[in-house]
Structures are given as C-alpha cells and as structure tokens.
Design a protein that fits this description.
mainly beta, eight-stranded antiparallel beta sheet, single chain, two-stranded antiparallel sheet
C-alpha cells in the first residue's frame, strides 16, 4: 500500500514591519491571508537570506505530590517566541528597525552628495524601547486534489529586536543585517501572535 504525503511546505516568507499600538486594528482580516498587506500600515523590509526561523520555547513547571513517584502534571510558566532572519537589503531604514530606534534615533534627509544618514538615540537609558508589529507572509500546507499551494500569515503583535545586530563587509559574502524579533505579551484580551492559513 502506497503512502500519500500531501501536507508539505516549502518557500520563503515576506517580512513586513508595522506600528505597534496595542490593538489589532491594522492587521489584515483573516480572509485576506492571500493578499499583500496594506502599504499604509505595513512596510516590506525587502529580501531576506537564510529564511525566517520561528522559535517557540515553552517552559513547563513539574507538579509534585508526596503520595506518588510519577509526575502528576505540568503547568506552562514561560513562553518565549522569536523570529530570526537576515535582512538582505542593508538600508538605513532596515537598520532603524533592527535597532528598535524610532523615537530617539533618526534618519536624516538627503543632501548634496549623500542620500541620507542615521544617528542612534543617545538619551537616558531608561527611555522606553519602540515596540513594533511584524507580519510573515509565507506558505501553508497545500490542499485539494492537486495539492494546490496555500498562503499562511503569521501575525506577531508586539515585537522588539532583542539580539545583537551584526553586519560585515567581506569580499566573498553579502552584507546583511541579522535581526531577532522577540514576541511579547499584549493584553488580557489580545494574544501575542496569530497564525492564519488560507482555505
């Protein structure tokens, strides 16, 4: 008897960055999973290299009772979700996203002989960081008789670039910005992330 394998996924995701405002008002509707997000709310950060790696680390605390040697259960005590990628277009705007630098940092306008500049924030260390929202528009398992490709949208509602940002200039390598966006708690009524698959 032959084994049928149909729910396979392959392909890159497009990364969009948006403003975090504590609501879901700017998010595309579930039914718009196969549509490009509105440019008025979401900025395409351009090409990436080495894919987008989503990581969900869950920490469970074991429960104990004196009467049995087996573990009677566990409770989730911590969830750490992140998305790691390399921004293949090392623009100053992408550097600003990678460094969470919107309120204090600045992108300067172009002038004679230069296209713009970036200066980081250098104010009090207690300054609140700039949270953002991120959308990953990628692929879901196929469906139907011909296993037609379907789209998947991952909504990351409150993120902060939490890792070191590195970029190198080498003869043999492409210059990219490495970025890791960590997902954070939003509110008691809004989940920190949502994943929508096309029908």
């Amino acid at each position: 008897m032959a084994t049928t394998v149909s729910n396979l996924v392959q392909g890159p995701a497009t990364v969009y960055v948006g403003t975090y405002d504590g609501t879901t008002a700017r998010e595309p509707a579930n039914g718009a999973v196969n549509t490009t997000p509105a440019a008025s709310a979401w900025t395409d950060v351009g090409g990436t290299t080495d894919g987008c790696e989503i990581s969900i680390n869950q920490e469970y605390k074991e429960l104990e009772v004196d009467q049995v040697v087996d573990i009677p259960g566990r409770r989730l005590v911590k969830r750490d979700m992140s998305v790691k990628t390399n921004l293949a277009e090392p623009t100053l705007a992408n550097l600003l996203y990678a460094l969470n630098d919107a309120n204090g940092g600045s992108l300067g306008a172009s002038g004679a002989g230069f296209s713009g500049y970036y200066e980081p924030a250098f104010t009090d260390s207690a300054t609140q960081p700039t949270y953002r929202a991120v959308l990953l528009h990628g692929w879901a398992p196929g469906s139907g008789s011909n296993n037609q490709s379907k789209r998947r949208m991952v909504h990351l509602r409150k993120v902060l670039s939490s890792d070191n940002v590195e970029f190198a200039y080498k003869k043999e390598d492409q210059t990219v910005f490495t970025v890791t966006w960590s997902v954070h708690y939003v509110s008691s009524s809004i989940a920190p992330f949502k994943i929508v698959d096309e029908a």
